[in-house]
Amino acid sequence: MSSLLDPLAQWLEANAIQGELEAYVRKHAAAFAERDEYDHACFDIYRGYDALVRRILTEFLEEIRSDAHLCAVGSQATPERLLSELRQEGAALRRDAAGKRLQELLEITSFEEFAAAAGRLRRQAETEAACLLAGMAVRVAGGASRASPDARLEALEPDALRAFGPPRR
């Protein structure tokens, strides 16, 4: 019996699944501002993510159904059965590219992990936006000094760029 992980990893890579999952988290990251408690809407967002992962696994199973007799899950496999078989074969412990793909797919398995990932992506987006704004401010200030020969462009103090950054915590 062959490993289920290799065809799954190839399928995940070919269908850019990691990008799809990250896009979902990134899209909803703003709802997960740092706080002690999250509202019901945040839990619904997580359930949407969980449904997305299940849909992805179901699509994979549908695609391999014709060859399912060759593997342990069979033709009536469910995402839960697939994950059980992957667990039994120790797929998540593999250190190769296929193991890494599975680890990426299963990186978020709880609401808390989703909230943490959303928080990381939200902070990353805030930092990227701050850098973009700072760069635009420097270009605008530089353009103003070139447009007016009498204008004097003072060196920006480090604190001036910090004003464009994300709020300090």
TrEMBL record:
GO cellular component terms, semicolon-separated: cilium; cytoplasm
Entry superkingdom: Eukaryota
Chief place of localization: other
Keyword NADP: no
Keyword Secreted attached: no
Subcellular location(s) of the protein: Cell projection, Cilium; Cytoplasm
The entry's keywords: Cell projection, Cilium, Cytoplasm
Domain spans labelled BART: 4-116
Record-linked InterPro entries: BART_dom, BART_sf
Protein name as catalogued: BART domain-containing protein
Native species: Symbiodinium natans
